[in-house]
Amino acid sequence: SKTTHDRMLAQLAQCEFAVTKSQLGSEMMAAEQKSYETLSKILENGIEVAKDTIEKSKAELAQAKTVRKNRIEYDVLAKVISEQPDRKETLERLESLKVELSNLEATKQQLESKLSLRKKQFHVLVTSIHQLQALLDEPDDVEFSDDVE
Question: Which portions of this protein are annotated as coiled-coil regions (predicted)?
Answer without folding.
Answer: 47-121
